Amino acid sequence: MTIMLALAFAWASGAQELSNFARGGQKPIVSPDIQGDSVTFSLKADYATVVKLSGSWMPNPWGGTIDMTRGENNVWSVKIPLPEPEIYTYNFVVDGVAVNDPQNVLVQRDGTRYLSMLIVPGARTENYVEAKTHGTVSHPWYQSDILGYSRRLTVYTPYGYENSPKKKYPVLYLLHGAGGDEEAWISMGRTAQILDNLIEKGLAEPMIVVMPNGNPGQQAARTLNIPEKAINWRSEENRDAYVKSLCTEIVPFIEKNFRVIPKPSSRAIAGLSMGGGHTISASNLYPELFDYICPLSAAGRSTPEQAAALKKAGVKLYFLACGSSDFLFEGSKTLDKTLTEQGLEHTFFVSEGGHTWANWRLYLNTFAPLLFK
Amino acid sequence: MTIMLALAFAWASGAQELSNFARGGQKPIVSPDIQGDSVTFSLKADYATVVKLSGSWMPNPWGGTIDMTRGENNVWSVKIPLPEPEIYTYNFVVDGVAVNDPQNVLVQRDGTRYLSMLIVPGARTENYVEAKTHGTVSHPWYQSDILGYSRRLTVYTPYGYENSPKKKYPVLYLLHGAGGDEEAWISMGRTAQILDNLIEKGLAEPMIVVMPNGNPGQQAARTLNIPEKAINWRSEENRDAYVKSLCTEIVPFIEKNFRVIPKPSSRAIAGLSMGGGHTISASNLYPELFDYICPLSAAGRSTPEQAAALKKAGVKLYFLACGSSDFLFEGSKTLDKTLTEQGLEHTFFVSEGGHTWANWRLYLNTFAPLLFK
């Protein structure tokens, strides 16, 4: 009987190990709580003086906050109109310190910061939530002789991959930005959900998506050991070391270990911000490797000669995307102009907003259906 | 030039999307900061009245805290003697509210709670940190006709799996406890690091480790949609539905999709708490399926007849483990007695402490070298 009571307690606490802080016996708090056109956020804070809410839907997410009100049992809350459908991040600010929502299991990691997520349902987000069928996300390690150590990848294989042992797939190489790592596109970008939904609906070709770690001094996300044999990747002679590793080590590793179609017409490369720069560099250094090239909010440029070389190589899709208020928008306009002048057929997809994951999810959801067709 | 400055800023912020809260220009805070025999924790909190530290190494982690002191620039800190080598979780308490350490990228998820990690180096933790070589962690989905929907698994394949296409491997099925899910053993249990290290040192056989989701009403960790076709798993007739899915659906799925040795002598089952109960149930329902059985801090029991059936089936290792102050210790002693009375050779491994991940990591590190030999 003692055992059963103790077990019931372990269940009720909803956690496997003993909590670091006491939990009361009050009724459970639901947060965020979407009801109709509004959403309520709640936090228990017994001794706080001021509790605020900060969310990425606010006009000024850097400093803007909404005051929360102390209610029964010191549960602070605020009810706001539901923002437009999108995935947002938010946190509470308790006496000046940012706090995640302890009731919300949905959390994104952005560098060292873990942020609670609010998913507002709607047409914009319908491909960002779980589909009925699911691909497999795996984390294999490849050996980089160029960078001098083994490195972790994230690989998405589409639903059906395991059950179709003779089928071969095209591959999208999808690159993160500065501050990101091999988990960024999966966590913040919702890549698995977007591809699951697009493929399930017949809108995108079943494809493999490879998400490497684009930081040449980093072995993997969240590992703190620094590789002993790492090259000096900051030196000028090594400036393209990661892009070279991508094109001459990661691509062959994937083509050896997964069932892929090893042809330019079945290879795409896309990346955001710094990863957009890597996309541009990779396509310029290896113009015949990828037939589909998608720089997103990209930090990078091409010379007229490089654009001409890509045209000659017979690129099938060049999809350039940027937000109209992005601080890199001028650079994208310059690249658009260079491509136009060299007669390289391309799409310049301009969205509202700036340098945000809201845009990068939209771009992936937009260009993935255009690949390999 | 504008572009380059903006980019430099994005780098410096260490994050891809704009922060939800303002960041100052002060020198970066390092926390936790291990120096010699002490560790210092720091948190910037401009408007807080009381800031405390709570850690799982404390004698009373439920309520015990240490006061932190306000220093220059409103950075609160406390320096404490380094605890014994182990992996701990901790958080700050700002005016009564638990807060993660925003400087620390190492975070464990326990149910809905995200907790900062402190890894104290030493003999106890040497297999808990990154090895030189790494297996692959993947998340395939299997279809459960018993439970009525598709479900997510975590699978570890050892280093070398991809490069040895003819080699076949034994499999350990490793089950979580109440409040956990298919990510618990990877996140809190450090399974990939422990297996990587044990295999690299030649202490354990290269093996595949399969970590299912043991909650029959849950499709996957952190997905919030409830499967439409789920059976009523709370009903008495369905009480063993998950264990049946494990033994008659997951085992065949793994043996079809991975290169395994499909024999009892190459199958092990282990689990903690509720997962220890599942381990006991599975071995009792299917006594010939697993030759290696390891209930850890287990919630479950066996009848004399069941123990006799396991003896008859020729079990190669029965490794029962529990902490001497665990609230389930009496149950483990009862099981030990039943096994002894039925003449089933077994190990009863009793450690210090209670129902904690410190013990479950220790148990995995202890029994994994005994498997498949």
General form of chain A: globular
Strand element count of chain A: 20
> In whole angstroms, how far apart are the ends of chain A?
64 Å
The chain pair forming the largest interface, with residue counts per chain, is: A-B, 96 and 96 residues
Low-confidence stretches of chain A: 1-14, 18-24
The H/E string of chain A reads HEEEEEEEEEEEEEEEHHEHEHEHEHEH
What is the subunit organization of this protein? homodimer
Mean pLDDT of chain A: 90
Helix content of chain A: 10-25%
Count of alpha/pi helices of chain A: 8
Description:
- The structure is a homodimer of 373-residue chains.
- Chain A is an alpha+beta fold and 373 residues long.
- Chain A has 2 domains: 22-121, Immunoglobulin-like (Sandwich); 136-370, Rossmann fold (3-Layer(aba) Sandwich), CATH 3.40.50.
- Chain A is 24% helix and 26% strand.
- Chain A has 8 helices and 20 strands.
- An 8-stranded mixed beta sheet of chain A has the order 11-14-16-15-17-18-19-20, with helices on both faces. In chain A, strands 3, 4, 7, 8, 9 and 10 form a 6-stranded antiparallel beta sheet that branches. In chain A, strands 1-2-6-5 form a 4-stranded antiparallel beta sheet, with no helix packed on it.
- In chain A, strand 7 and strand 8 (97-99) form a beta hairpin.
- In chain A, helix 4 packs across helix 5.
- Chain A is globular and about 70 Å long.
- Chain A starts with a helix and ends in a 6-residue tail after the last helix.
- Residues 1-14 and 18-24 of chain A have low confidence and may be disordered.
- At the A-B interface, helix 1, strand 7, strand 8, strand 9 and strand 10 of A face helix 1, strand 7, strand 8, strand 9 and strand 10 of B.
